[in-house]
């Protein structure tokens, strides 16, 4: 059961992190300018902030779990639909220019900057709420170990994405441009949409 929460958290963390938005572009630029560690630490800063939002959300879900259970069917459909929408949006997104240089001081400043940039966007927690509802919420209440594993999964999933992104950008180097990022968005968008469809189909069956 614990592994189940860890995997679900990883799926959520990966899905929220994967769309190449402002933080993604920032990480790509830092990877190109200062190396993959700069990009990775920037991503870990964002993943840490996301984990904080996820822990806040999980605590809230624990308090209102009885109410959520009564709406379990609709919450699954809503969450799965949002995940599908997020995937389509990612698939169709046109990334900004990622080849522009950006300043870099230390790995710590890379981490701190993206941590606070991500934390300064409270709308992130709404995205987590929508995606969390795609999964079974009945086991959240009162089980701190499951909650901890879920949050750990979120961090692991998000960090996995940032690791893959920094490795890919570092490997291809100057070949990474707007056209290349379109293909990245299409691949990740398809994966995220697939998660959403699976969530909806699990309820239908």
Describe the structure.
With 205 residues, this protein is mostly helical. The protein has one domain (2-204). Helix content is 79%, strand content 0%. The longest helix has 29 residues, at 144-172. It is globular. The two termini are 21 Å apart. 46% of the residues are buried.
List low-pLDDT spans: none
Largest sheet: none
Number of strands: 0
Distance between the termini: 21 Å
Rounded Rg: 17 Å
Helicity level = over 70%
State the domain count: 1
Q: Which structural category do the helix and sheet elements fall into?
A: mainly alpha
The number of helices is: 9
β-strand amount: under 5%
Following the backbone from N to C, one meets helices and strands in this order, namely: HHHHHHHHH
The global form is globular
Would you tell me the overall average pLDDT? 75
Please provide a brief summary of the model.
The protein contains nine helices and no strands.
Question: Secondary structure elements and their pairing?
Answer:
Blueprint: H1 2-17, H2 22-34, H3 36-63, H4 65-70, H5 72-92, H6 107-119, H7 124-132, H8 144-172, H9 178-204
């Amino acid at each position: 059961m614990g592994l189940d929460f860890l995997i679900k958290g990883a799926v959520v963390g990966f899905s929220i992190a994967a769309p190449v938005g402002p933080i993604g572009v920032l990480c790509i630029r830092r990877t190109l300018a200062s190396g993959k560690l700069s990009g990775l630490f920037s991503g870990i800063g964002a993943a840490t902030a996301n984990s904080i939002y996820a822990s806040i959300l999980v605590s809230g879900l624990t308090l209102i779990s009885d109410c959520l259970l009564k709406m379990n069917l609709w919450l699954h459909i809503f969450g799965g639909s949002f995940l599908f929408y997020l995937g389509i949006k990612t698939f169709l997104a046109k990334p900004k220019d990622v080849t522009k240089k950006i300043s870099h001081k230390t790995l710590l400043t890379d981490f701190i900057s993206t941590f606070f940039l991500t934390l300064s966007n409270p709308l992130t927690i709404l995205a987590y709420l929508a995606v969390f509802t795609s999964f079974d919420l009945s086991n959240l209440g009162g089980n701190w170990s499951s909650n901890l594993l879920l949050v750990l999964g979120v961090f692991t999933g998000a960090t996995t994405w940032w690791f893959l992104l920094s490795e890919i950008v570092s490997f291809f180097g100057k070949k990474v441009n707007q056209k290349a990022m379109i293909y990245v968005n299409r691949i990740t968008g398809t994966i995220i949409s697939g998660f959403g469809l699976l969530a909806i189909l699990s309820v239908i069956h």
